[in-house]
Design brief:
Elements lengths: L39 H25 L40 H8 L7 E5 L9 E3 L12 H4 L6 E8 L9 E10 L3 H16 L3 E7 L4 E7 L3 E2 L7 E7 L9 E9 L2 E9 L5 H14 L3
Antiparallel strand pairs: 1-3, 2-5, 3-4, 4-10, 5-6, 6-8, 7-8, 8-9, 9-10
């Protein structure tokens, strides 16, 4: 099978000699021609040429006919695509669930390391009017206590609930003087988050020396307000710390404010007194966890 290659032997066996003269027999016999004699070399070359032709044909057949034992070529890999999943919307709290988000007396004492048995607990469902209380700079009441009505009245809040845990004389204690936990309900997550950002921005303007006047200016307390920080455990928790300064009879009094938001609830916490560690952050983190656990 030599198609496309031409005759490998050029039309005749390579090396074949032309026919020689006829061989003459003895006179008694009728003369007859003899086939041309071929040398052993010519016969061998012809044999080799035939074998080569068969080998070439075998190679062509082997290349054309697939091996039955070979594995068929794999087709293109099939791919499975799945539709993207949409995260479930966070569970929105209701007004009836707000009291259950706040820590109890024992839980608040545990979070702050308090040991006194003289604390009183008061729950309320309204914002803090703080009649007769003002600050310099203006509009910084929220930097000192929770639920300042002026920053919530037009915020879109639909409900609030607070729990105050306070000693009879919180200004002079060396341990926890008091805690005020507050949760504020909004129609949706974005509204709660927006209000938390509004309070954070307001607090930035209260950093430095802050004077609180009480009883319509009859008494005053001065605070040194530190720059805002965030909880290392949860950066969504914004912390504003201040300490009383230049105020006779009020040694080592600290006030820490915390604000955060989760789902449709804003968390507004104030912790004050002598020594309470990282209690404000721990209380806030626990409230946020309870909000996240709502179904």
């Amino acid at each position: 099978m030599t198609q496309g290659w031409g005759d490998p032997f050029g039309g005749a066996p390579f090396g074949q000699s032309p026919d020689g003269p006829p061989i003459i027999s003895a006179p008694a016999h009728v003369p007859q021609s003899q086939p041309p004699r071929r040398s052993k070399t010519v016969v061998m070359l012809a044999t080799v040429g035939g074998i080569a032709t068969i080998a070439v044909a075998a190679l062509v057949i082997w290349a054309v006919i697939p091996d039955s034992s070979s594995t068929p070529a794999a087709g293109p890999a099939s791919t499975t695509t799945s539709a993207p999943t949409t995260p479930a919307a966070p569970a929105l709290a209701t007004a009836a669930q707000l009291p259950g988000l706040l820590l109890s007396l024992d839980e608040a004492k545990s979070a702050t390391g308090a040991t006194s048995t003289a604390y009183t607990v008061t729950d309320k469902q309204q914002f803090n009017a703080s009649e007769g209380v003002a600050t310099q700079p203006d509009n910084c009441r929220s930097a000192l206590f929770t639920g300042a009505g002026e920053i919530f009245v037009n915020s879109g809040a639909t409900a609030t609930y607070s729990r105050s845990i306070v000693l009879p004389d919180p200004l002079t204690t060396t341990e926890l003087g008091g805690v005020e936990e507050r949760v504020v309900l909004y129609p949706n997550t974005s509204a709660a988050t927006k209000q938390a950002a509004t309070i954070e921005n307001l607090w930035r303007g209260c950093v430095g020396l802050l004077t609180e006047t009480l009883n319509h200016g009859k008494n005053w307390i001065k605070y040194q307000v530190d720059p805002l920080t965030r909880s290392p455990q949860d950066p969504s928790i914004v912390v504003l710390s201040s300490i009383v300064t230049d105020t006779p009879g009020v040694p080592n009094f600290r006030n820490v404010r915390v604000v955060a938001a989760k789902n449709n609830v804003l968390v507004d916490v104030a912790v004050f007194g002598g020594n309470f560690g990282d209690g404000p952050q721990r209380i806030t983190a626990e409230i946020l966890a309870r909000i996240g656990g709502l179904t």
